[in-house]
Known about the structure:
Strand order of the largest sheet: 1-4-5-9-10-11-12-18-19-23-24-25
Low-confidence stretches: 1-55
Distance between the termini: 60 Å
Oligomer: single chain
Amino acid sequence: MENPQGASLSFAKVRMEGYDGYKKKEENSRKIFMNTSTLKAHLHLLLVALASTATLYPHTDKTYLSIRPDGFNSTIEYTGYHQNFYQAWNRPFGSMLQITPFYSASKDEHKLGEYFGIHDNRDSFSIGKVVTEVDPFAPPISNADLANGLFIHDQATPADQRTLNGIVSLHPHRNVFGFQCLYIQHVGSPTSPVFIRAQVPMLHVTQKVELRVDESQPVMIGKKSFDLEDFFTGQVVNVMGINQQTALENLLIKGTHKETGLGDFACSLGYKFFQKPNNHLFVSFDIVIPTGNKPCTQHLFQPVYGNGQHFGLGASLDAGALVWKNQYAHLQLLSYLRYQYLFPNHEHRVPSICGQPFSQYYLLGENGTTKPLFPAANVLRQLVHVKPHSMIDFMGMISFMCDGWTIDCGGTVFYKNRETVTPTHPFPSDRYGIASPSFSSDGTTVFNAAGTLDGSMLTQKNITMDSITTPYLLSTKFFGGLSYTYKYQAVTFTLVGGASYEYASTNADLEHYTLWTTLGMAF
C-alpha cells in the first residue's frame, strides 16, 4: 500500500522543482532579452555605418594611391578565431597559433581608372587635335580632351593636321596571395587575464595598370612612327631634327609588377576584463613595426606590401555576448573595433601641374638650355613628408555554433583618414616650363618663357600636392565563414574556410573579393 505522506512529500518536491525551474527559465529569458537588446543595438550601429558608405564621391587627376594595408583585416583574423581562443584559455600552455593562407583579387577596375585619369565619372579620355576657331560660335575642329602635341612633339605640323590620336582608358588590377600568421600567448598561467599577440603577413602582390588605346593613330617623327602606347611605355625617343625629346622615366604605364615580402609586424598586449563561456570583453594595445617596402615612382600604381614604412600605435576592443542557447547549439554576437595611428615618414612621389589634367606626362623644357624636351614626370619626382593619420576597422558578426561546427557571417566598415602631404624641398622656380607644340626643339634653339605653353616657367605654386594625396577611404565588406573545432588530447584544432567581398564608397579604392582558409591550434 502506498504511503500517502510520501506521496505528499513527493508532490511537494515536484512543485518545488517546478518552481525552481520556472525561476531559472525566467532568469534565462531576462538574460536572453538583455542580450537580444544588445544585439539589436549592435546591428543598428552596423547598419548605420554601412549606410554611410553608400555615397560615391569620385576623385580624379591623381598620380598616387595608398591602399589599405593587407594585415589590417579583421575578417581573415576573426572568422573562427574565438572558438580557438576560448580553448587556449584552458590548454596547458595557454597558447594559440593561426596560419591563414588567403587570395584577394580586384574587381570593377574602371572606377580606379577614373582616379588616375581625367574628368569625373569617366574611365577614358581622348588625346588628339585640340584647335578651336577664332569665331566663338564656330564648332571646334576637334573635341579631343588633351592636345596631342603635348605628349609627342611635332613642331613642323600645324595643330589641325597632326595625326597622333587615341582614346585612352586605364584599368588597374591588384592580386594578393599570402599567409597571415597569428600567435597568442597568455602571460604566466594559462588562465591569466594578460596575453601577448603577435601577427605578421607574408605577401606576394601583383599589380598592373592595363593601358588601352582605342582608335589609335600614330605620328611620324623623322623616319620613325610612334603612337600613344609607345609614349606611355617609355619608348618615344628622338635625338634628331626639330622634334627632339627623351623617353618617359617615371610613372610608366607598362607591364605587370610583383613584390614579395613581410607585411607590417603587429605586436599587442591584451587584457581580458572578463571571460565566461560564450561571453567576453578584451582590450589590447598595439604597436606596428613596418617591415614592408617603400613606394616606388618608376611605374604608375606599383605594388606595395605593408603601409609604406610608417610606424603605428593603436588599440582594439573585442567583445562577445550570448544571445540564445539550448542544449544542442547557441548563437553569439561578436564585435571588434580596431584603431591605428600611423606616424609620418618620407616618401618619393610624382605630383602633377595645377589646372593641367594628366600634366605629369606633358613635355617640358629646361630654361636657358638647348636640351631635348622631356616628360614632366622625369623631373616632378619629389621627396615629400606624408602623414597617413588614422585607420579604423569595425566588425559586427553573428556566430552560430552546433556540435563543433560554427557558422560566422557579418560585415565590416573600414575608414582611413585623408593623408597630409607636404614637400620637403620646393620645386626649383623658373627652371622648367611646359613646352609649346610650336617650339623648335632642334638642339640649337634655347628654351625660355617664349617657348612655353602659357609664357611662364613653373614654380612650387604650380605643383599640386593634391594629385599625390590619397583621399579618405571608406569601404564596406560582407563576409561569411564555416569552421570546425576538434579536440585531440591537450590540443584543440580549428579549421576555417571563409570568403568576403568589399565595396568602396569612393573610387579611391579597389573593390575586391577574398578567399581564405585557416588552421588554428590551441595548446
